Amino acid sequence: MTNKVNILTETGADVQSISEAVALRIKAWRKQQKLTLDALSHRAGVSKGMLVELEKGMANPSIAILCKVAAAMGVSVAEMVDVASKPNVHVIDEADIPVLWTGEKGGAARLLAGSSGPDMVELWRWSLPPGERFASPGHPQGTFELFHVEQGTLTLIVDGVRTALTQGSAAVARTDVPHEYANENNEPLSFTMTVAELQR
Predict the structure, then answer these.
(1) Does residue 186 carry a pLDDT above 60?
(2) Is residue 56 part of a domain?
(3) Is residue 170 part of a domain?
(4) Is 189 contained in some domain?
(5) Residue 35 belongs to a domain with what CATH number?
(6) Which residues contact 117 (CB under 8 A, 6 or more apart)?
(7) Could you tell me which of 133, 134, 166 has the C-alpha nearest to residue 149?
(8) Domain that holds residue 32
(9) 56 neighbors 23 (Cβ within 8 angstroms)
(10) What is the per-residue pLDDT across 19-40, written as a single tens digit (0 to 9) for each?
(11) How far is Cα 102 from Cα 107, in angstroms, rounded to an integer?
């Protein structure tokens, strides 16, 4: 399984435009905030080499790295991939919704929409075939996620505690600790997830 953002592992102009947009946004925000690469690296806890690759549009970072860089810059991942809220209504066409993760078995996570700024809310849609899983080391303190299972059974593991969410059920989970989403059954799994990360 890969926890990498698929802006560079896929092919086509749309994918390339996403990686270029991320590169341009990071450069612009860093310059606007007068941050050197060294300072951003220290603030985000991400290597300077990774930041250089991101700014060149050459990196294939994990979702966790994008989250760290976005948090260090006071923006959301949704802003970085241009699915963030704007004044009034910002409509994102289906073709413009990015896939930010794919698994070895064909699972996928799409960031449908999100808010701007350091206080952020994101709406995701995940699909996991049998045997697929995704692991996160945890988000900043106070982060929580809302889940709704559309099809199948989601095994949610939060800080070592396993919970099975069946089709039609919903849950709220604290995700500022290590957590995983897994499909441990023999049928496809799809679920929506909302992440709320509020600055304290």
Answers:
(1) yes
(2) yes
(3) yes
(4) yes
(5) 1.10.260.40
(6) 74, 75, 76, 79
(7) 166
(8) 13-77
(9) yes
(10) 777 788 888 888 888 888 888 8
(11) 5
Cα–Cα distance, 60 to 2 (Å, whole number): 10
- Contact by Cβ (8 Å): 157, 182: yes
Tell me which of 11 and 24 has the higher pLDDT.
24
State the pTM of this model.
0.71
Q: Which of 114, 125, 120, 121 is nearest to 148 (CA)?
A: 125
Specify the pairing of strand 179-182 against strand 153-158: antiparallel
Residue 23's SS3 state is: helix
What does the pLDDT look like over 79-95, one tens digit per residue? 877 767 666 787 888 98
Measured in degrees and rounded to the nearest 5, phi and psi for residue 142 equal: 95, -5
- Check whether residue 192 and residue 131 sit in a common domain: yes
CATH code of the domain covering residue 175: 2.60.120.10
Residue 82 located in a structural domain: no
Does residue 99 come out as left (phi exceeding 0), alpha (psi in the -120 to 50 range) or beta? beta
Residue 7: closest CA among 49, 40, 53: 53
CB 147 within 8 A of CB 191: yes
Considering only CA atoms, which of 124, 151, 149 is closest in space to residue 136?
124
